[in-house]
Amino acid sequence: MKKGIWIGGAAAGLILAVLAGTLCFADYRGKEGMQFAADLGNGINIGNSLDATGVREHRDNAQAEYYETYWNNPPITGELFSEIRKAGFRSVRIPVTWDEHMDAEGNIEPEWMDRVQEVVDMALHEELYVILDTHHEMWLNLETDKEAEIGGKLDKVWTQIAKRFSEYDERLLFEGMNEPRLRDSEYEWTEGTKELRDMTNRLNQVFVDSVRGTGGANEERYLLICPYANRYETAALESLKYIDGHVIVSVHAYIPYSFCEGDGGSRTFDADNKGDTEKIDTLFAWLQENYVKRRIPVVITEFGSEDKENGEERLEWLQYYLERANGIGVPCFWWDEGAERKLIDRESLEWKEEKMAEALTEGAWPEERE
After folding, report:
1. More exposed terminus of the chain, fewer Cβ within 10 Å: N or C?
2. Is the pLDDT of residue 2 over 50?
3. What is the pTM of this model?
4. Phi/psi zone of residue 2: left (φ > 0), alpha (ψ -120 to 50 degrees), beta?
5. Cis omega before residue 256 (within 30°)?
6. Strand 4-7 vs strand 15-18: parallel, antiparallel, or unpaired?
7. Residue 226's closest CA among 255, 256, 254, 196?
8. With 90 as the cut, is the pLDDT of residue 7 above it?
9. 292 burial class (0-12, 13-18, 19+ CB within 10 angstroms)?
């Protein structure tokens, strides 16, 4: 299958270089990129904190801490990251919504940027890798007739973030977009249309160009790009235009969905039942074929299962999921929102799902887990 590489600056536009024959990605930093992704290990999201939204609907000029606690989580502390590291995790993903913290010109409020930096510093102090993203950005709705406007906002947001962190070392990674999709459409939670997938590719390029253009450590910082809506279906994976450089692919996969999500869904999982495992097997077969075989690093930056008072089944599901992921070297980041998918209580700092946390961290930093 032919592949293309997107090159060029965001301001100058986008140029697709199509090479004759099959494009081989084996030379993309070779083992370096794959090894870097592997070094992240399995991670944990600090969700429903810095990514909270909806405050402006009823309260103007809310302070940063009000946002951070709006979705019923306590303020993030250094002690939280300390406990995460002690448990054996190597990495955290810090979802951040910037939308309600920008003025009409797209300038990020200094108070919000300062708080985000403070939280990033807490995690880095514990020698964790950190993935920083843009999360519930309502302006990032893939309406194709507004692509220029959306791309301009994406460029401005990431230019500001990248400048603030330009001298941070490689332990800090940036993730350009979270589930970019056409909201409230029939294509919202699908692999999308060709037009929507192509738009996602162009926005990925805007993100990479914006960060690289700020110089400093950002010239070689590892960046995460995604298929349309971070989907895992073949059409989404195959359509992603991979960008040469220090880039990792980000995919989300809450599967099987009926088990992982929602009231009224399945509460049972049997690793010996093909009907329960088929979608997981297919996911990792697709990731293997589209990325791993081509030496393209890929990370599942969101996965998890809601607690339906089915702890044994959830543990069996997690162990099976991780077995398949580990088999092809794909790190997985648990979506922890402080609620139904909570591994650690952010108030008491007690692990509520110790066996699940151990499954995620098994083999990580064994010298510190003896």
Report:
1. C
2. no
3. 0.90
4. beta
5. yes
6. antiparallel
7. 196
8. no
9. middle
For helices 110-125 and 147-164, give the axis angle rounded to 10 degrees: 60
Closest by CA position to 202, among listed 245, 240, 153, 157: 240
Cβ partners under 8 Å of residue 347, min gap 6: 74
Q: Residue type at 268? A: T
Helix (H, G, I), strand (E, B) or coil at 179: coil
Cα dihedral 327, 25, 134, 212 in deg (nearest 10): 140
Are the C-beta atoms of residues 199 and 187 closer than 8 Å to each other? no
Whether 302 is catalytic is: yes
Q: How deeply is 187 buried, as exposed, middle or buried, from its count of CB atoms within 10 A (0-12, 13-18, 19+)?
A: middle
| 318: Cβ contacts below 8 Å, ≥ 6 apart | 305, 356, 359, 360
pLDDT digits (tens, 9 = 90+) for 56-88: 877 877 888 899 999 999 999 999 999 999 999
Q: Which helix (H) or strand (E) element contains residue 38?
A: helix 31-40
Maximum Cα interatomic distance, the chain, rounded to a whole number of Å: 58
Average pLDDT over residues 5-27: 32
Q: Which of 83, 126, 175, 179 is catalytic?
A: 179
Distance between the two ends of the chain, CA-based, in angstroms? 47
DSSP assignment letter at 22: P
Residue count of the chain, please give it: 370
Whether pLDDT at 327 is above 80: yes
- Paired with 43 in beta bridges are 91, 333
- Which regions of the chain does DSSP assign to beta strands (E)? 4-7, 15-18, 43-45, 91-94, 129-133, 172-175, 223-225, 247-252, 298-303, 332-334
pLDDT one-digit tens code per residue, 254-306: 999 999 987 778 999 999 999 999 999 999 999 999 999 999 999 999 999 99
> Can you tell me the distance from the alpha carbon of 158 to that of 207, in angstroms, rounded to the nearest whole number?
7
